[in-house]
Every structure is written in C-alpha cells, then in structure tokens.
Write a structure and sequence with these properties.
Strand content of chain B: under 5%
Distance between the termini of chain A: 26 Å
Structural class of chain A: mainly alpha
Strand order of the largest sheet of chain B: 1-2
Strand order of the largest sheet of chain A: 1-2
Radius of gyration of chain B: 22 Å
Number of domains of chain B: 1
Largest sheet of chain B: 2 strands, antiparallel
Radius of gyration of chain A: 21 Å
Order of helices and strands of chain B: HHEEHHHHHHHHHHHHHHHHHHHH
Oligomer: heterodimer
Chain lengths: 476, 496
C-alpha cells in the first residue's frame, strides 16, 4: 500500500486532523482563549467540507474493508455540510451555556467523532467495519444527549438512547453472526454472491434490519425517538434526526440493494409494511404534539417512512431518489431545528403555542420556519416537493400504486400538522408573542445556508441528474 | 424572453419588488396595480398575437417552447397555448387586476397580502401555459397553497377553520392527482416510446384501457375537487365565505376553473377510454351538483354563501357540459367558465362593497340599498340578471350553448339529465331575484344606512373592468366561440 492510496480516505483523515487539532487547542489554550474554539472548529470543518467538493477517485483499501466512490463521497460531503450548518446553529448555545463550564471542545470532538463514525459506516466494505462505524456514530451522541447535565430529562434521554441503542446493536450483530454462519464471509461483495434465500438468512436479515431500523427510527423501533429528542439539547436532536439518520438510511439502502438483493422477495414485503406503519404512526402522533422537539421527532419518523418508498425500486432510480431526498431532508430539518434553536436560546420557549403571533414580531424567522415546514410537507417550488414526488415516482415505477396512494394520503395528513405551526405563527395574534430579536451572526449564517438549500436543490435540476449519474457505482 | 414565460416571470418580479421595496399600503398597491396592469396588457396583446399566429399556424399549440428540466425523468419546462388557455389567461388577468383595485384599502399587513395574491397568480398563469404534466402540477400546487395564508390571515368569521379545510381538501385532491399523473407517466411508453410527461406526446399513445379505467377517476377527481364536484365541494362555501373579497373573487373566478381545465386537458384528453367508461358516473354527480348547488343557494341567509353555492351549481354545469362529448357542449363549458369567472368575481366584489359599508351580509338585515348606493345597486342588478341568463350578457350565451350541446346527444339518459339540469335555471332565478329584490329594492331596512359612502373610483374601476367583457361576450359571442371551437378539434379526434 502506498501513500497515495491513503488519499482515498481523504475525508476521514480530514476529520481526524480536526479532532487532533481540537485536542491540541484544548491543551494549549488558556482560559481567556476558550471561546475561540467555536470559530476554530467551524472554520476547520468548513475547510474540510470545501475540500469535499474536489473530485475524488474511487477504490478500496485494507483488502476491501473500506471502499469509496463518487456516490459515497458526495454523500459524505453532504453530511459534512449538514454538520457545518449544525455547528453554526449551535455556536450561540455553546457560547452562552457551555463555554463557561469548559466543555466546548468536547462538544465538537464528540460531534466530529460521530460524523467520522458515519463516514466509516457508509464506506464499509464488510460487516466488521460497518459495526465499528455504527458504534462510533452512536456512542458519542449518547454523551451529547446528556450534555445538559443539570436537566433530569436530558439524563433520562441519554439513558434511553444508550439502552435501546445497545439492544439494537446487539440485534444487528446477531444478524451479522447468522449471516456469517450461512455464508462464511463478512465481506459485502462475496456475501452478495453467496447469499441465497433461506429461512436462516431471512432470520438474519430480520435481526440485522431491526438494528438499522432503530437508527432510522422506523416503526416499531421508534419509541426512543420523541423522548430522546425532547431531552437532548436542540442541536443534538437535530443531529440525530438528520446526520445519524441520513447515514443509516444510506447504508441500509446500499446493503439492501447489494448484499440482500437475493432476499428481495422477502424484504420487500417487510419494507412494504414497515413503510406504511412508519408513515401512519409518525403522522398520527405528530398531530397532537405541543412541544416543537417532540413534534419534529414524530415528523422525522414520518419522513423516514417516506424515504423507504425509494427502496421499492431496486435500481438506480431508487438509490438516487433516496439520496436526493435525504439531502433535501437534511436541509429542511436543519432549518426547522435551527429556528427552534434560535427561539429557544432567546426565550427558552419550545411549544407551538409560544409561537403565536411570531410573524408580527419576527417575520424573517417565521418565514424561514414556514419554508422549512412546507419543504417537509412537500409544497412546490421548495425542494421537499421534488424529493417526495420522485420517491413516489420510484415506488410507482415498480407498480406500487397502492403504496403511493397511502403515501400521498399521509402527505396530506402531515400537511395538517405542519400548517398548525404556520397557523400559530401567521394566523394568530398574541399579546405575549416572543418579542423581536436579532439572531447572532453564526445562527443567521446557518439559517441562510439551510434556506438556500431548500430553495435551490429542488428547482436546480442538475443536482438530481448529477446524483443519478454517479449512483450506479454500487449496482454493477 | 418569450411571450408566455413572461406571464410567470412578471408576477415573480412583482413579488420580489414588493418584498424589497414596498414600505406601506400605498407603495404596495402601486407596485401591484402597475404589475397587474402590465399583466393585463400582456394578456390582451396575447389574444391578438394568438389570432394573428393562428391564421398561419395550424399546430395544436402555438408559441411553444421546450426546455429540458429533469433529464432523468424526461421532465421538460414546455409551454404553449391554444384558444382555451388564451381566454383563461385573459380571464385571470382581468379578475386579478380587478381584485387589486378592490383590495385598495386593505389595512392589515398589506404588503404580505399582495405578495400572496400575486404569488398565487404566477401559479395560475403557469398552469394555463404548461404542456408538461409535471410542470403543470407544480404550478397547480403553487396556485393552491397561498390560499391558506390569504384566507387565514385576512379572512373573516371562522377563518382558521375554513382555511384549513380548504387547503387540506385541495391538497388532498392534488395528492390523489399526483398518483393519477404517475399512472399516466408510467403508461406513456405503452407504444414503445420513452416515458414522457409531455401532454401531446402522451396523446399519441394508446394507454391500455385497464390502466385508463384505474387512473382516470384519480385524475378526474383530483382536478374536479377544485372545480367543486359534488360531494367534494364542501370546502367551497365555507372557504369563500371566510375569504377576503379579492380572494373570493380570484378563487371562485379563476382558481376553480383550474378544475374544469385540468379535467378537460389532462383527464379526458389523455385517458379517453377511461373518460367514456366513467362518463355516466361523473355525469350523475355533476348533474346532482348543479341542482344541489342551486337549491343550496336558495336556502342561504348569508350573501356570500348564496354566491358560493351558486358557484357550486354553475361549475358543476361546466363539468356536466364537458362530459357530454360534443363540440357545442364543450364550447359552452368554456364559455360558462369564462362567464361564471367574470360574474362571480363581480358578485363577490359587490358583496364585499356592501359588507364593507353595512357590516352585515345577512339578507334579512339588508334592504333598499339601491337608493343609497345607486352605482353599486345598478351593477348588482345587472350582475344578477346576467347570472340568471338574461340575453345580452355572457351568462345567456354560455348556458344556451351548454344546453343546446347537451341536448344534441342522442342518448336518452343524457337528454333526460339535461332536462333535469335545465330546470336549475328556474331555481337560479328564484335565489337571484329574491336576493337582489330584497337587498336592493324595497324599503330601507336600517336608518343608519342613509349615510353610507358612495362607491369610490377604485371600486368603480374594478367593477367596470369586469363588466365590459361580460357585455362583450353577451353581444358578440360569435368570434369567441369560433376561436374556441377551432381549438377543440384535437380533443374531438381523440375522444370520439
């Protein structure tokens, strides 16, 4: 192995470098310089994200344990961009609450380690690397969920998360061991050739799928979601709902389309039922939520149900629409969580009722929130519409019209609860409305970046066509 | 920039101008009125340009343009117009300009009001010029969603409830429509060609009859909900009653026409066998809607509800005529769309003016308004008479054409249905004459009404703008119906 081949791991090495630089900063900075870690970390990640736009070669390392190609690389850059927006949005919260407790560098280190885990997970070429990546994504987030140490609800969330996550990892690992028992290999490529449909391999798949379904909070593995989101600091909930979920969705798609392709007739039915259940449960529970974090938690469960529609089409179209939708979903959800964060850090208010009359006092924030929610609901010309319509297209291309019909019914249900928030902000007037405030610079930058994503990704079609052109790398 | 894309681009530019430059009501309405004036002038210009182009160009659509949008799905931004779209665009421009005049004094969040109104209009214009299913669907949804804010923020009465009901029903319908569109798309390669969203390419394909039977009702209902098809009309009365004046005008006058247009252009044109197989079922629904709407209007006490139910009745008549499958009835349907669009907009404008002065819309509390407000009263009477089909106005021309066309159908069942539907004219006369008689004539119901302010210049402008085409269509219908008839030929070839 020569030095150049290490460049295939460029994005991972970049994140590692950031981690090391953060440690060095932590050691050598004095008390007055502590706050400088925020711009320092953000700039480092911004550089890493910008490097992601450079072209990258595809290839394998470590005998096929690690692999990368244009599609994975694109997805990693998207995730990195998402985390960048997330860090921008958390900068004020860190400044106000965390820096004094001397915990800011840890926050960045934990988030970036988790992102590194996500990178390894999607780049995995065998189940060992996959499992390491999965754990590396999960464990740092547990610490982050409990970051508001003085809050009981935060600790409760963290315990719930670690326990259910351990169970899910255990289930996934058990599934992997059964797979190893049937095929005698843990490498994706060789397993894809050997694996045939048998009772044992289907059982193995069910266990494995349960583990990933937990990460993506699919019904019936969604019970942790709302409680953990509510307990976690908003930016961590945001991270859970976009980055960790997005990475899990991608690896699930890749595995289903390659390793488990021979089991398609079996998993197809499972996914069919899980899709319907996830959409309905997520939507129906979201209807009655008052707390914005719980609200977005259930909304993100429902969105995961929509993502599964793309799995119905086991071809280039399916994987493209999934990645496209996840990218859009990242921006839309980040914008929504960002506004919640901005309002919460100014006024500590997190309920939908508190948003009444918001447009009259904070028009720009309300407008952005409306854009984000409409994008999640799938209203043109915002990106979410195109994402959802193409997912329908993917499912319909295989003739699943009934499933598409159920999905559009759910899209209408979801529109109702998204409109409830719009109603509070725009239609209602209130004397106790949150007064006007100007968000700090980082927050504004984070929100603007998310808004640009919402407005541009849909209408600007070359993005979709680009993803389509690179998405065949797994399928041949 | 081509002549058609401007119809979408100008509203977007106005929205941007409003967002960044308008500071108060005066500036907002100035920008809006200038912008919509340009739009109006463009639409008049479009009619003449169309007539000139049509003399030499025999394609189905003229002024076409085609730009690839999503290459993977073969989605194009493709546009073009025939006579049907041209008259619909003109109707939209007229109602919109009148609506801006009627909203001259909107005091709460004026800038946002005009932004929502004009954003909505860009969707409507885009819908009428599109010849690509996907693009059309995008514009359709853009036209629907601002309604929520328009009714919810500036409405009256149970505005939140009405806005939510309207939005959910219409978006639910468009969700069903999206399944229908996907069904059409994935069957567009039935003859071995590529998958396409282009309407005229799909029209060359023989989609399997089994698929047509499944996707036709989805597409039909998806569009017909906004065209107030019974029993999916329930959003309309409450929505129109709660909406502010200009929004009622635009919604009843233009947006509901998207339904009939979509049914004709997409559902019936692309799925002809499905249309014939399902015709009886939808015919009964729409005939029932005509009668039901008319009787519903008789029973109402609130002026806006009267008009809302009357709209249900008249728009069901449009669907009824479309389902009759002959040239005369189709011409009638389009004339009825135009005529109803203008007249209902006038009605809502007048009701808004009366309500703005008397602060009541209850028929029993109003009386003798004519003596105090002669201009508004006179126009009210004219509108009422035109609405119930007095010769010399557009209503007569439209309904006459519809009924003549419908009765031409040799099928006995249809003839009987036509006779039943014709009887709705009598019911229409009942509620119109009763309403106009009670509130305009007779003794003054309330002494306080003596000092009501006279109609202002902007109100007059708005009304006259709408009245002129009503009279023009009524007096000179021939040119218009000839123009429309020419464009019906491709539909005839496909459906019969």
């Amino acid at each position: 192995m020569n030095l150049e081949s290490f460049l295939l791991m460029r994005s991972e090495i970049g994140l590692l470098a950031i981690l090391l630089l953060l440690i060095i900063f932590e050691i050598f900075s004095n008390k007055k310089q502590k706050a400088a870690v925020i711009p320092f970390a953000i700039i480092l990640l911004a550089i890493n994200t910008a490097l992601g736009f450079l072209p990258q070669e595809s290839g394998e390392l470590f005998g096929g344990m690690f692999r990368t190609n244009a599609l994975l690389y694109f997805f990693k850059t998207t995730l990195s961009f998402g985390v960048l927006i997330l860090l921008l949005q958390s900068a004020d919260w860190l400044k106000a609450k965390v820096v004094d407790e001397n915990k800011a560098p840890e926050f960045f280190m934990l988030i970036i380690s988790s992102l590194l885990g996500a990178y390894f997970m999607i780049s995995a070429g065998d189940f060992l690397m996959f499992y390491i990546g999965l754990e590396l994504t999960t464990l740092p987030v547990t610490a982050l969920v409990a970051y508001d140490t003085y809050k009981r609800i935060s600790a409760e969330g963290a315990v719930k998360y670690i326990l259910s996550s351990a169970l899910a990892s255990g289930a996934a690992l058990f599934g992997v061991s059964l797979l190893y028992a049937t095929t005698g290999t843990i490498y994706f490529d060789s397993m894809a050739e050997i694996l045939t449909s048998s009772n044992l391999s289907i059982l193995a798949f069910v266990f494995f799928f349960s583990g990933l379904a937990f990460k993506t909070s699919l019904v019936p593995f969604h019970f942790w979601t709302a409680d953990v989101y509510e307990g976690a600091p908003i930016n961590v909930a945001s991270y859970l709902s976009v980055i960790s979920k997005g990475a899990a969705v991608l690896i699930l798609t890749i595995l289903l389309f390659t390793v488990f392709k021979s089991l398609m007739p079996a998993w197809n039915k499972i996914i069919y039922i899980v899709t319907i259940a996830t959409m309905f449960i997520g939507n129906l529970f979201a209807l009655r939520q008052q707390n914005m974090k719980r609200f977005l938690a259930y909304s993100s469960i429902a969105q995961a149900g929509f993502i599964l529609l793309g799995l119905m089409s086991v071809d280039q179209l399916g994987i493209t629409t999934i990645i496209y939708f996840v990218a859009i979903y990242i921006f839309s959800n980040l914008a929504a969580f960002g506004v919640v964060q901005a309002i919460s850090s100014f006024s500590d208010k997190e309920n939908i009722d508190d948003y009444e009359g918001l447009y009259r006092t904070n028009p720009k924030l309300s407008l952005l929130m409306m854009l984000a929610l409409f994008s999640l609901a799938g209203i043109p010309p915002l990106a979410g519409f195109f994402g959802k319509f193409f997912l329908y297209t993917a499912a319909a291309s295989q003739g699943y019209y009934i499933l598409v019909f159920i999905a559009v019914v759910n899209a209408t249900i979801s529109l109702y609860y998204y409109l409830l928030v719009v109603r509070a902000m725009f239609l209602r007037q209130s004397d106790s409305a949150i007064p006007y405030f100007r968000s700090p610079f980082y927050m504004r930058l984070g929100l603007i970046l998310a808004a640009i994503g919402i407005l541009v990704i849909g209408v600007y079609s070359p993005i979709y066509d680009y993803i389509f052109s690179i998405s065949n790398s797994f399928l041949n | 920039m081509d002549i058609l894309s401007l119809f979408v681009i100008v509203p977007i530019l106005i929205v941007l101008a409003l967002t960044f430059f308008a500071k108060d009501l005066k500036q907002a309405r100035l920008i809006s009125v200038v912008g919509m004036g340009i739009q109006f002038a463009m639409s008049i210009n479009l009619i003449f340009a169309y007539l000139k182009e049509r003399a030499t160009n025999t394609d189905i659509m003229v002024f076409t343009k085609d730009v690839v949008w999503y290459e993977t799905f073969n989605i194009h931004y493709s546009i073009g117009v025939d006579a049907i779209s041209v008259v619909m665009i003109a109707l939209t421009a007229i109602v919109l300009l009148a609506g801006v005049f009627i909203s001259w004094k909107i005091d709460d969040l004026p800038k946002e009001f005009f932004i929502s109104l004009i954003a909505l209009s860009s969707g409507v214009f885009g819908f009428f010029i599109s010849t690509d299913l996907f693009t059309m669907f995008v514009f359709y949804e853009i036209a629907v969603i601002p309604m929520y804010l328009l009714i919810g923020i500036w409405g009256s009465g149970p505005r939140e409830h009405s806005a939510m009901k309207l939005t959910l029903m219409l978006m639910g319908a468009s969700a069903v429509l999206s399944v229908g569109i996907l069904g059409i798309y994935f069957n567009s390669n039935a003859d071995g060609g590529p998958l396409t969203f282009n309407i005229f390419e799909i029209a060359q394909v023989n989609i399997p009859v089994a698929a047509q039977n499944i996707f036709y009702p989805m597409t039909f209902i998806g569009f017909a909900v906004i065209g107030a098809l019974f029993p999916f009309h329930t959003w309309s009365p409450s929505g129109h009653a709660s909406a502010p004046t200009a929004v009622s005008m635009l919604h009843a006058g233009v947006l509901m026409k998207l339904g009939g247009y979509g049914v004709f252009r997409i559902a019936m044109y692309l799925l002809p066998e499905g249309a014939l197989n399902w015709a009886d079922f939808f015919l009964i629904l729409s005939a029932f809607g005509v009668i039901y709407g008319a009787f519903g209007a008789v029973m109402q006490k609130d002026l806006k509800y009267v008009n809302a139910y009357a709209s249900v009745s008249h728009l069901s008549l449009v669907l009824f005529a479309l389902l009759m499958f002959n040239k005369t009835a189709w011409t009638g349907a389009i004339l009825q769309s135009l005529s109803h669009g203008l007249l209902t907009a006038m009605f809502f404008a007048l009701i808004g003016m009366v309500y703005g002065r008397t602060h009541t819309r209850e028929i029993s509390k109003l009386g003798g308004i004519m003596k105090i407000l002669p201009f508004i009263g006179a126009i009210y009477v004219i509108t009422g008479l035109a609405y119930l089909g007095l010769p010399g106005f557009s209503g007569f021309v439209a309904e006459m054409t519809v009924f003549v066309g419908a009765f031409q159908h040799p099928d006995m069942f249809r003839r009987i249905l036509t006779i039943v539907v014709v009887s709705s004219i009598v019911v229409t006369a009942v509620y119109i004459l009763r309403m106009v008689g009670k509130i305009m004539m007779g003794p003054l119901s309330n002494e306080e009404y003596k000092d009501l302010p006279k109609a202002t210049w902007f109100e007059k402008t708005g009304l006259i703008l709408l009245l002129i085409p009503v009279i023009l269509i009524g007096v000179l219908p021939l040119g218009l119906s000839e123009m429309i008839k020419d464009s019906l030929q491709p539909f005839l070839e496909r459906l019969l």
